Structure formats: C-alpha cells, structure tokens
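Batch manifest, entry 17 of 40.
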Amino acid sequence: MKAADVLARARALLLDFDGPICSVFAGLPASSVADQLRGVLADGGHVDVPEWVATSGDPFEVFQYAATLGKDEARCVEAAFAAREVEAISSAIPASGAHELIEAWYDSGRALAVVSNNNASAVGAYLELYNLRGMVDFISARTGSDAALLKPHPYLLRLALAALMVAPGESVFVGDSITDIEAARSASVFSVGYANKPKKFDDLTGAGAGLVVSRLQDLHIVNVR
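Output type: structure tokens
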C-alpha cells in the first residue's frame, strides 16, 4: 500500500503543523521558550519544580506541568507560550514539499484542516505569511489553557472532522510524533507518519502508524476535482 493511494481515496486531509508543515522553533529555540515559561512559573512563586520540568527543553512539558498546578498557572503559562509561538513564526522554516502538498490538495477540491497542539494564532499567522490560509478549510489547534485536550487526546482531530463534515474513515492524518499517531488511532483516522528524522521511522511504526514516509513528496496528489 502506497501513501499516494491512501490519499487518493480520502475526502479530507488533516495535517499536523510543527513538523509536517514547518519547523516552528527553527529561529527561536524551543529550549529558550521553555526557559521563559519556567520564568513565568517562578514569577508566580513556583520556583521548586520537579527535575524533569527544570531541565526540559520542551515548552509543552512546562505548560503541561503548569496545568497540574491550577487554572491560573495554566492560563498565565499558556498566554506566554502563545506569544512566543507567534513570535517564532517569522523565523519558522517550511518543511520541504509542505506548501506544494497543501496547494495540490486544494487544487484537488477536497477538504483540508491543520490539526495542531500549537496555538491557533501561530498556525494562522504562518498560513497568512505564506498565502496559504485560503487553502485551509479549518484550523483545529490550541485556543485555551486546557492541556488535557491536546494530542494524544483525539479532541482536536474530532473537532476537525466535525467542522469538515467527514467521517473518520474518509480522512487521513499526517503527523510526525507518537502523540499524533496515538490521537489518530483514538479518533479512528488513518495515520501517515512523517519521519523527518531517521529515528522517527521506528518510533512512528511502533506507535501504529498506517504508513510511514520520509518525504512529503511521497504524498503526491492525484487531481480529483
């Protein structure tokens, strides 16, 4: 089974953002953002954090920890996180073949959604920057401080499916992380793992991806409009 054959039968394409579309923190390192979020926690009196939080270079881990402390902490950290994500968009690097994939899918006349744990404002800013917003039917991304609704929870995928009015079995989701694949399985959506790093091939396969590709160009689209 080839990825292109799977996509040819789909009515809707769902794309993760950071990875399959661009490298969000290419110019503003994620580790620096994580440091800033720890600073927000410290300003709120949370100085003595667990070792894994104190040393993490992943801002999502800091945000998820903040969500365990209370709603106020989650809101403050998420707001700071969102601001840094939007700031990062100007230096984000497009994934090779990503824009061409979006344009080809749009030309095929089928529905397209971006499904991301990143803040919706950052996703929208990127699409506007590259004149892609009009080709994307729906953005299903983080809009608040409830970390429990982020992937691997299927909420964002189900939200996209409802907005596009397509069934899970009529859709394909392209993601580059284990949490993406887990979310797709929970939502009963066929998943294509994007292994943009060698180690990811085994990780995504092991997580249960329906297919794994190393290049977005492998997802060439047949025009069906």
